[in-house]
Amino acid sequence: MGGLTLIASEVVLWIARFVIEPARKILCAEKAMVRIALLLIALIPALTLAAPIDFKYDPDVRRPVEKPPKITDPFLIENGKRDGVKLLESGLQVEILSDGYGRMPKFTDTVIIDYQGWLTTGLVFDSSYKRGRPGTFQVAGLVPGFSEGLQHIRMGGKARLYIPSYLGYGKKGSGETIPPDSTLVFEIEVLDVIE
């Protein structure tokens, strides 16, 4: 019987050394991971509350809107005084040329439009008319002023947008055609709105 006891004790030691000890280490590691995960979950609200939020959310446009800077462009100042030109809170000016008959595009829609864009100098920088075919765009993928303005034009309607530089291409401009800090003017006809 002594031999069996020796073998049994060897098996018990072997199980302890190669099965129980590694299992205990794994369980300890799992406990540590659980503790780390719980700590991170607890920190998320604290970090969120500590982050300063200095913008508001405009549900009509569905993008963060900072307080718009004061308009200093003489063209926009004078243009905003004209009858029929509506000044939006963002600083965008919208002039409806024809009302249209359908619904207005939403930020998440795709639109088919005919359009022409020019600078206040009169230089045309883009035109679907010159290309001979309308453009198809996701409203969300356009410069902020164009995107916001589209949401004020009914399908079948036509409007002119006067876009301050900070809602257009800003201080960077675009290529060689649109210099930095340029006010943009677009005439847009909404041909179709696709959800």
Written account of the structure:
With about 200 residues, the protein is of the alpha+beta class. It has two domains: about 1-50; about 65-195, Chitinase A, domain 3. The protein is built from four helices and nine strands; from the N terminus they run αββαββββαβαββ. Strands 3, 4, 5, 6, 7, 8 and 9 form a seven-stranded antiparallel sheet that branches. It is elongated.
Briefly, what is this?
The protein has 195 residues and is of the alpha+beta class. It has helices spanning 2-50, 74-79, 128-131, 144-150, and strands at residues 56-58, 63-65, 85-87, 93-98, 110-119, 124-127, 135-138, 158-163, 184-194.
Strands, helices and their partners?
Blueprint: H1 2-50, E1 56-58, E2 63-65, H2 74-79, E3 85-87, E4 93-98, E5 110-119, E6 124-127, H3 128-131, E7 135-138, H4 144-150, E8 158-163, E9 184-194
Antiparallel strand pairs: 1-2, 3-4, 4-8, 5-6, 5-7, 5-9, 8-9
CATH architecture of the largest domain: Roll
Please give the share of residues in helix. 25-40%
The biggest beta sheet reads: 7 strands, antiparallel
What is the CATH topology assignment of the largest domain?
Answer: Chitinase A, domain 3
Q: What is the N-to-C order of secondary-structure elements (H for helix, E for strand)?
A: HEEHEEEEHEHEE
Summary keywords:
single chain; 195 residues; alpha+beta; Chitinase A, domain 3; 2 domains; seven-stranded antiparallel sheet; two-stranded antiparallel ribbon; 4 helices; 9 strands
